[in-house]
Amino acid sequence: MAMRGFTLLEMLVAITLLAVIAVIAWRGLDAMTRGRERLTDHDNRLNSLKLLYGQFQSDCEHLSSPTLLQGSPVELGNGQLLMVRDRRDEGRPGQWQVVAYRLNGNTVVRAASPPADNRSAVQAAMITLRQAGGGGNLARPLVGDADSLSARVWVEPGGWQAENGRIAAALLSGNASASAVAASGVSASLGVATTAVRAIELNLTARMGDGDTPRRFQKICMTGL
Q1: Residue 18 lies in a domain
Q2: For the chain, how long is the longest CA-to-CA vector?
């Protein structure tokens, strides 16, 4: 008895079913792969944001004293924040270092000057870092796909300030009051204290993935002054 084979119609139906199953399986695998890539990209961007926060926290905690610097240790600019921090290297006298957080295209970078041991060198470093591209090899990219960067400063007792003139005026006024009290021999415990930068707020708008809407991130650091 001859064995009956598959008809052409049955073969076409089987091939069609296999093709449909293959397409469904491919789409599922593609969705899983894309999802994994998005999660990996999101984790990388989140790690970059954590790195920015950690470095910013360290710079804030080592912010220079306005009294010793004889000027404001913070300068705000359009898409830029300049800070003068103390640099303590083992076996060497204390120095200053100017650091800048700025928006370079769509990337937040941190640039740093070489250590400075006098105020003239600090001023020269600030002039260099104010310029786009200032910092050279010491500029380090931190966060990509950023749209904006801004900052403001809490000056005690003036509160939050976002203008360099107001920051400098508050610091100058407070230090002048403290100097007058010290010269008069009145105890500082009577209520007049040296004005200082107590906190710095960094605001960043960035995307955490391709096609993601911009999100606003905020970091407030206490300076310890």
Answers
A1: no
A2: 124
- 73 cis-preceded (ω within 30 degrees of 0): no
Domain assignment of residue 180, given as a range: 42-184+193-222
pTM: 0.75
Does an H or E element contain 218, and which? strand 215-222
Supply the DSSP string of 33-87, one letter for each residue.
Answer: HHHHHHHHHHHHHHHHHHHHHHHHHHHHHTBPPHHHHTS-SEEEETTEEEEEEEE
Structure-token pair, residue 198 = 């107590």
- The structure tokens 């002054």 sit at 225
Q: What is the pLDDT of residues 28-64, one digit of tens each?
A: 877 777 777 777 777 888 899 999 999 999 999 999 9
Classify residue 5: in a domain, yes or no: no
Tell me how many domains the chain contains: 1
Are 97 and 116 in contact, with CB atoms under 8 Å apart? Answer: yes
